[in-house]
């Protein structure tokens, strides 16, 4: 007997932990999951940003908590995971969104900047997934992990960006998603990734200023950049029962840029 579609997308009774959730794409995803009924735990580095984000979600009637931590520090990641589980009892949905970028020609890219990007964009995803998977998802034989990759991890250098560490890190996120999906499928855990194109955000403001928002939009078949709603549907699909038979997939949300660049 089939399930009504509204029930498939209902997240009532679920808890979602969203990293890098105080602004931008992470906050958009948190808003989507919260509006579908999930309780939200946000984490990022700055308490002030988290307070503002939590107030924004709470004003929409979303049950929201927050924990300030540096996701590039494994000890702080484990602290976030422990506190979340102590307060919420379980984590049903993990959104690995925390990330950083660094612009520099490859020949001049500082090694310390390479390490900073890799630690946050790749290492933290592994640490969060391992901690939550082992403590909450594997024992219950259920869970949803959503990684935020990028079209920069699909097509190498889609817009002539000088961000070798960032692009490389997002390529790693793509393959990490596939590997973990294959390994943890037997535990009833799905692992998927969203690969956004260009969205106006604090992280992309340098690129948008350098290359021009209109120019970047003109490169997309849909002739637009992403907006405040464009990740919501993809995130909800991967987080809900509607996506229970989808795992190891990378969904580009980029206005069609990757169909031109071959991502």
Description of the structure:
The model has no long low-confidence stretch (mean pLDDT 93). 46% of the residues lie in helices and 14% in strands. It has ten helices and seven strands. The longest helix is centred in the middle third of the chain and has 30 residues, at 111-140. It has helices spanning 5-8, 24-35, 47-58, 74-88, 111-140, 164-184, 205-211, 213-218, 232-239, 257-261, and strands spanning 15-19, 39-44, 64-68, 93-96, 143-148, 189-196, 250-253. The protein has a single domain (5-261), classed as NAD(P)-binding Rossmann-like Domain (Rossmann fold), CATH 3.40.50. The protein has a seven-stranded parallel β-sheet with strand order 3-2-1-4-5-6-7, with helices on both faces. Helix 3 (47-58) links the parallel strand 2 and strand 3 (64-68). By secondary structure, it is an alpha/beta fold.
Question: Summary?
Answer:
The protein contains ten helices and seven strands. It is of the alpha/beta class. It has one domain: NAD(P)-binding Rossmann-like Domain (Rossmann fold).
The CATH architecture would be 3-Layer(aba) Sandwich
| End-to-end CA span | 38 Å
Structural classification: alpha/beta
Q: What would CATH call the homologous superfamily?
A: NAD(P)-binding Rossmann-like Domain
Total DSSP helices: 10
Radius of gyration: 17 Å
Order of helices and strands: HEHEHEHEHEHEHHHEH
Low-confidence regions:
none
The count of β-strands is 7
Strand content: 5-15%
**Proportion in helices:** 40-55%
- Number of structural units classed as domains: 1
- Anisotropy-based shape: globular
CATH classification, class level: Alpha Beta
Major β-sheet strand ordering: 3-2-1-4-5-6-7
Mean pLDDT: 93
> What's the CATH topology name?
Rossmann fold
Main pleated-sheet profile: 7 strands, parallel
